[in-house]
Amino acid sequence: MSIPCPRCQSPFTPGATSCPGCGSSLLLEAVPGSTEPTCAVHPTLRGLATCERCGAFACAGCLRSGVSGEAVCEACAAREPNLPMPWDEREELGTLKAFWKTCVTVLLRPETFSRARSEGSASSSLLFVLLCSLPPFFVTGLTYLGMFILMPAMFPLPQKEGQPEVPFALMGMGMFVASILLGPVMLVAMTVINAGIDHLVLRMGNVTRGFQVTLRAHALSQAPWVLGVVPFIGAQVAPFWALVARVFAYRGLHRTTWGVAVAGALLGPALFCFLCGGSYMALILFAASQLGGN
Ligand SMILES: [Zn+2]
Ligand SMILES: [Zn+2]
Ligand SMILES: [Zn+2]
After folding, report:
1. How far is the CA of 3 from the centre of ligand 1 (A)?
2. Domains of the chain by residue range
3. What is the pTM for the complete model shown?
4. If you measure from the C-alpha of residue 16 to the centroid of ligand 1, how many angstroms do you get, rounded to a whole number?
5. Which ligand is nearest to the CA of 60?
């Protein structure tokens, strides 16, 4: 829901205090004696819109985005559900139980995000990503380990005289350790980068809440990665399930519309695929033109 700026009529999102169109402050002094509505809390300021919950006039400083992006006053926004996710109750539940309950919630009841608390520290969000990444990378590591130990046993290389034996088991162990150590670190780094890109898109959609909210939504929506423990299928399903969960998370935690949430979750990855796909196509075309030329 956007409200027109009284100066230039550009729409602004509840929560903004300056106009994105003309840049002027939206905290306008009420003209004494005029018939213009004034804020129910601040009688010296102009009321720019009515709260869709209680009907009171609210100034720009009092307007907030409600659960579905509607304009509400500060008092009504404060009464909105602000439930902690199980992950926020680690002290009471214990880290593992809080993690598991959050995964079940995100996977099966993603609409919970629209009633959930928006704020969460960056470190708590990244710790969640780290835990999500352990099961799939553990399974990947085990697969490498199995491959390096089983393959040489099943298909022995012809052993040449005087040549040192290839240390397959040791290489397998190395791949295993690299997978469970480097994999999660990479995923955490990717989370920060991707959340940053998504946040830029969300800001273009007039989202007013900070980067920490985007990071929290991005992190919690990675819960489907725990499906990576299911061999072969889990890792294929997880990215798509995580994208769906992310749309719910962005909509819920940023209190924005479905349109902005879908754009925030999908535009970044879509652009990435487009660029990668584009460079692959260019390479193929280049190779084809070289072959054709000869
Ligand atoms: Zn304006
Ligand atoms: Zn209200
Ligand atoms: Zn006010």
Report:
1. 10
2. 1-80, 86-154+165-291
3. 0.73
4. 11
5. 3
